[in-house]
Amino acid sequence: MKRSKRYRALKEKAETGRRHSLEEAVEAVKAGATAKFDESVDIAVKLGVDPKKQDQVVRGTVGLPHGTGKKVRVLVFCKGEKEEEARAAGADCVGFEDLVEKIKGGWLDFDVTVATPDTMPVVGRLGKILAPKGLMPSPKTKTVTRDVGPAVQALKAGRINYRTDKTGNVHALVGKVSFDTVSLVDNVRAFVTELIRSKPAAAKGHYIRNVVLSSTMGTGVRVDVRELTEVVRKGV
After folding, report:
1. Which residues contact 9 (CB under 8 A, 6 or more apart)?
2. Per residue in 2-57, pLDDT tens?
3. Is the separation of the CB atoms in 70 and 40 below 8 Å?
């Protein structure tokens, strides 16, 4: 693929192959984000797991201390009094069978779903539609719950879900380039801390193998994994 002069210049500036401290990586990403909009900052982590084995799939949820900077559209499947609880917490779409039918028709104008346990026998039928897009509610990500109000508030405040892909990588949004360096560093540390806590017992050898930060339109900046994991494990 032919790259633009801007991309090649940023790639050279990022010093391909060099691993940076987390603070340096964040600064490099911010410096390389020259688009005319507030670019997202993403993290990609290569894990030492075999995602083909169910006992090595890494998935869960984590609250970022400074949020993601992105407006999250939350859909809640619920009935009765839980509908008012969901709306009061800020849910964007609330309902049950009406939403199920709407989704079957191809509507997917939301970012995350929450469901009460009593709706799951019906919501589960949407698995082939929602699961491939990472939108299926699950107890593991705390999105199947009776406590819909707190769940919606946490998602709106910056709680994100994560899961390894087919190649053992985990991708996540950790903020915006408009965030200050300290806030982005805090968010990345929180995310990596959660990944380490979620290490499967069956995973052997080196676990966190590679960490790359990037902005929406910028190039990837590699983070010094050893330094990052040492800092995270010390709780600094």
Report:
1. none
2. 555 654 555 565 555 678 899 999 999 999 898 999 999 999 999 999 989 999 99
3. yes
pTM more than 0.85: no
Task: Provide the token pair at 236.
Answer: 């600094």
CA atoms 134, 139, 144, 150: torsion sign = negative
Report the DSSP beta bridge partners of residue 64. Answer: none
CA distances from residue 167 to 49, 50, 51, 77 in whole angstroms, order as listed: 9, 8, 7, 31
Residue/partner pairs of 161-165 with CB below 8 Å, 24 or more apart: 161/59, 161/60, 161/61, 161/112, 161/134, 162/58, 162/59, 162/60, 162/61, 162/62, 162/191, 162/194, 162/195, 163/57, 163/58, 163/59, 163/134, 164/47, 164/49, 164/51, 164/57, 164/58, 164/59, 165/51
Three-state SS string over the chain comes to CCCCHHHHHHHHHCCCCCCECHHHHHHHHHHHCCCCCCCEEEEEEEECCCCCCHHHCCEEEEECCCCCCCCCCEEEECCCHHHHHHHHHCCCEEECHHHHHHHHCCCCCCCEEEECHHHHHHHHHHHHHHHHHCCCCCHHHCCECCCHHHHHHHHHHCEEEEECCCCCEEEEEEEECCCCHHHHHHHHHHHHHHHHHCCCCCCCCCCEEEEEEEECCCCCEEECHHHHHHHHHHCC
Q: What are phi and psi of 114, to 5 degrees?
A: -125, 145
